[in-house]
Amino acid sequence: MEVTNSMSLGEPHRHDKIQDDWNNREYIELIVGSMRKISSFLNEFDSSCRYRLARLNEKLESLERKLEYIEARLKLLFIIWTKKLDYYHGNRPQHQGTGKTDKRTSPGRGQNEQNESVRVMPRSG
C-alpha cells in the first residue's frame, strides 16, 4: 500500500513539471515569434532605407552636375563681361608686333565715337 501512495504522491509533482514545461515552451515560442517579427521589420526597413538613399544619391548627383554646368556658364559669362569692360574702358587689345591698339568699332558704336572711352559706373543699391 505504501508503494501506491508514493506513486500517487509523485503524480502531482510530475504534472506540475509538465505544466511548467508547456508554459516555458509557449513563452519561448512567443519570444521566437516576436524576434522573427522584429527581424522581418528590420530587413524591410533596411531595404527601404537603401532604396531611398539610392534615389537621394541619384538626385544629389544630378544637382551636382547641374551646379557644375551653371558654374562653368557663369565663369564664361564673367570672362566675357570683364573683356567687354576692359574694351569699353579703353584697354583695347594690341596688334602683335606693332604696339598699336585695335581700331575696330565695338557693336553699337559709330565711327566718330570710336576713340572715346566709355565709363561704366557700378550701380548703387
What does this entry look like structurally?
This protein is mainly α. Helices cover 70% and strands 0% of the residues. The protein contains 1 helix and no strands. The chain has one helix spanning 2-88.
Brief summary:
This protein has 125 residues and is an all-alpha fold.
Please describe the topology of this protein.
Layout: H1 2-88
Total strand segments = 0
Report the β-strand fraction as a percent range: under 5%
Name the structural class: mainly alpha
* Helix residue percentage: 55-70%
Strand and helix order: H
Keywords: Coiled coil, Cytoplasm, Cytoskeleton
Region (Disordered): 89-125
Family: Belongs to the BRK1 family.
Subcellular location: Cytoplasm, Cytoskeleton
Key traits:
125 residues, mainly alpha, 70% helix, coiled coil
